[in-house]
Structures are given as structure tokens and as C-alpha cells.
Amino acid sequence: xxxxxxGLLTACLIGMGMVMPLMAQVxxxxxxxxxxxxxxxxxAKFGMFIHWGIYSVLGDGEWVLNNQKIQIEDxxxxxxxxxxxxxxxxxxxSLAKEAGMKYITITSRHHDSFSMFDTEASEFxxxxxxxxxxxxxxxxxxxxxxxxxxxxxxxSQLDWRRDDYYxxxxxxxxxxxxxxxxxxxxxEFMRTQLTELMTNYGEVGGIWFDGHWDHVDWDGENWxxxxxxxxxxxxxxxxxxxxxxxxxxxxxxxDPLPGEDFQAFERTLxxxxxxxxxxxxxxxxxxxxxxxxNGSWGFNLQDTDYKSxxxxxxxxxxxxxxxxxxxxxxGPMPNGKIQPEFVERLKQMGEWTEKYGDxxxxxxxxxxxxxxxxxxxxxxxxxxxHVLDWNDDLLFIPGFPGIVESAVYFESGxxxxxxxxxxGVFFYLDEDQKTDPDTIIEFSIE
Length: 446
What we know:
There is one protein chain. Helix content is 25%, strand content 21%. It is an alpha/beta fold. It folds into 2 domains: 343 residues, TIM Barrel (Alpha-Beta Barrel); 72 residues, Golgi alpha-mannosidase II (Immunoglobulin-like, Sandwich), CATH 2.60.40.1180. An 8-stranded parallel β-sheet has the order 7-4-3-2-1-10-9-8, with helices on both faces. α7 runs parallel beside α8.
């Protein structure tokens, strides 16, 4: 469908109670650079998610505008208080690298409409609206290039501030906006900002879209029909034309659309169905699981339920065993510092990845599907068994897909005792070889 007339058609269909067809990048064929980037992405396995914006001033998460029903004219005043003088791009990127992370995904614009970069499309941005007056993304892009970390941009399709985000979706009501607007103007705004992001910051790893679900009904278990046209048939080619290697993901909770290059899962592992997030089954695209270190994405002063180092390592290991990356979130404070609890845990993870990363980086999901006791990973002909839940010294794997030739404990190199029968393989675990939170056995098969 051509661009001309879509706004009128959308309005007519919505008025008649009909929905728009879900359009994407039809006949998309990834460029060679894109396929190479997908391979790199799958090998990377571990990234840092950063949710940061003026909402951090209130210390109540990134949904505070919606949740507290703050009037737009009042919320905009937060920009005057956002002056992160202690932000240090080198410090942030170095921490990600020390943790063993290979890429960073940061919120360029969240649902509150505030842009963390210098944009001509809106004055509501960190350069024009705050006393800080500097482009955060430019600083990170420069430092990521120096340290060999890839930079991705989270980009919100949903907007709680702009009048032209109309018709309204499921969220962001009662904030003082008029009940009218021009959807086509909003699409043009997004088009302008995405062009800036893909043009002004060097090589970009990709775009991580979020907010599609705002215009989809949810019954508590399943997503319904889309009732607007997001113009993916224009926006996806725009990104791929400007940077063919850039990877596109969309946190829409439905099967991947043509033009998307990896599949994102929120707060869950690919294929798991729990916590109300479930989502679709994993596809053949590279996979990524986005998770938090406490319960919040943006800085939340009262959320002190920090996951332990052991829990975070289990997340990383299980993600790899589910053939997925882990995108682990931090929500920096309004002064530009990262919470010490996050720093401590990331440094601990770095010590672990330095020692055991060979069993994670560059691997794919192993030949044994994820089990209650743990997962397996595979790198070429090398196979790794990650025992996360050691309840018994005898571990039986039924229906083992292959003949085990040898097995050793990864840390010590000592032989791991096993016995294979027609029904599967017994591993006789040695308590002296146990390494919390993950005991790793490397094995080879015929």
C-alpha cells in the first residue's frame, strides 16, 4: 500500500470498527552485512539494557507519567531538574565491558516522549530542554566505538505526550491531551527521528522497537488485532537502507514480521509461558531475552529487590541454553551514576564470564533441551552441560541424542564419571567438583 491516503483509510477503518492489516517490509532479503551482523549477535550472548530519562528524577520507574496520571504540562517541568553531571560514558561502557557484555541498548526515546539525543523533530530533548544540554547518545556512541562495544537504540513507538499520537492506545489517558490529532504527522515524526538515529551516530547495531502493543487488545492471555498502521513497510526499509547491517527487533509480543532481524522476549526466556509475558514461540531468527536486575526498568528508589549474583548467572546461562542472548537492564540515577548494587553485581558477573565465558560466548543451544537441572550449550564439536540445580549426585538424561565419548569438569579438567545405556546417560556427579552457581561438564560425542 502506498503512503498517500493511508491516514484517511486508517481513520475510516477505525471508524467502522475495522482493523488495519499488519504491514511490514514485504519481500525483505537481508543484506550480506545484515546476515553477518546476525551471526555476531548470536555469538555475543550478553548485552546491557539502559532505561534512562527524565523519569529517573522522580525515582518511580519509567511508567511514572502514566501510572501517576501526571498532567503533561507538569511532567515537562522535570526536564529542568535533569542535569546528570556525573554521567561518564567511559565509566558506563567500561563497566559493560568488564561485566562481559558485548553490546549496549539504550532508550533513545521512551513512552514519555523525551528524547535522550539532539533531535530536530522535537524540542523536548536532552540538549534543548535540560540544563545538561549535551547529547547522551553521541557520547556513548563515541565511547562504544573506542572500546569495541556495539550500540543499539531502543525506540518507543508509543508516546504519552504528543497530541498527534492519535488515536490513543490502551495507555496514557487523562494526561491533559486533546481528543484529536493527526496520526500521519506522528509517523512523519518517527520517520525523522529514526533517520537522525541511523545517520548521526556512526555505525548502529540496530533498533529495538517498543509500544506496538499499545494499539492491540489484550485479554490476559492473548493479543488481539492491531487497530493502527505503524507503517513498518516504510520504517523498516528506511533503517535497512541507511544501515544495511543494522538489526531490527520489535517487542510486540507476536510472531516476527518481515523486516525484523532478531526476536525479542520481555521478562521471560524464549518459549517459556509464565508471568503473563509468554509471547509467541521462538522463531528461527536470533533470540534475545530482556530482564531486570531488580523489578524495574527505570530508576526506582523503592525497588530494592535486587537479584543475587547467583540468580543473574542462572539467567545468563539459561538464556544461552535456550539459544538466546541476555539483555540485562540497569536504570541509572538522575545524577548520571549507576546504582552501586548494579555495579557490584555486574563486576561479579565479569569475574564469572572471564573464567567460564568460553562455555557461553559463541555457543548455540545444546543438543539436550533445557531441563529442570539446567541447560546445555554447544560450540562446534564442544558440548557443555551446565548443572544449575544440583539435588542429587546422580543425574540421568533420558533419550540422550548421541554417544558420549568423554566428559570432564570444565574448571578442573578432571574426568566426569558417566554411564550410557539404551534409555539415556547417567552422570555421577562429584561433590568435590561442584562450583556454585553453575557446575560445568564438557563432553564430546561421536
